Structure prediction request, 304 residues.
Amino acid sequence: MRHYLQFKDFTRDEYEYLFERAKKLKARLKAGQLYQPFVGRVLGMIFEKSSTRTRVSFEAGMAQFGGHAMFMQSKDTQLGRGEPIEDVSKVISRMVDIVMVRTFEQSIIERFAENSQVPVINGLTNEYHPCQIMADIFTYIEHRGPITGKTVAWIGDSNNVSRTWLQAAKIFDFKLNLACPRGYEMTVLDGETYGKDHFEQFHDPYTAARNADIVTTDVSTSMGYERETLQRKKDFINYKVSEKVMLQAKADAVFMHCLPAHRGEEVDPEVIDGAQSIVWDEAENRMHTQKALIEYLLLGRVED
Ligand code: CP
Ligand code: NVA
Prediction:
């Protein structure tokens, strides 16, 4: 049994399979063909933080597969009243076939997975957001081809999403340029070392964006850090993806954002709503790639 708790849980070869499979599942869905390998199967989803895309993509994907997705907010369950995560995992995993968890510390999902009888998927933690970057790379490949050898410029916070881009840089052999204010530099948590071929930190967004193939960003205050919002708004004021920042990147560069976005804060409306933006495909592809992921965790490699 496999879990998907961080991006480096899968090899490049596995991602290449998943991308091929997601492409096939997407084409099949667009052609109106029913594909229901999971009739009678249940995906349990535990949310300790808010969500639009993650909930809808998993729920719609599981329905398309003929199965059911059960939405649980921790505040409405006994988890919100202090039931130990180990007990919650032991109980839920006896009744469902696969679980997705969105929570705070990575250690919480790791404890859940250790006690689970079924595969567990990370739907975002404070540290990582692997499903997001799987969808992002699939989307880049759809638009521009292989990501290997390319440069991703991240302008903004060293958070769960950028930390996942970093793991992906090593696996797919591309470079992450990260520009953030002083005091917000990336801390590597996975024990890996990242050489200059894969990772460079900057404080100047224009330098980080130079010759980039992807320019991307995220909110300056992630969920769970709301108390820091005012300070962060001030500290990140010069870390916005503007048209001027986009001009530093390659002419065919794309703009990506995991969403939700704050126009005028981390990105200007002209960029996110402009011709280089691929954010809507990026959001939709969460569903197609996660369907490939669910199928892989439950059935392994599928030929048809
Ligand atoms: N990008 C993303 O995970 O969005 P939600 O918070 O809406 O799920
Ligand atoms: N970094 C953001 C991503 C939201 C999808 C957060 O954790 O709130």
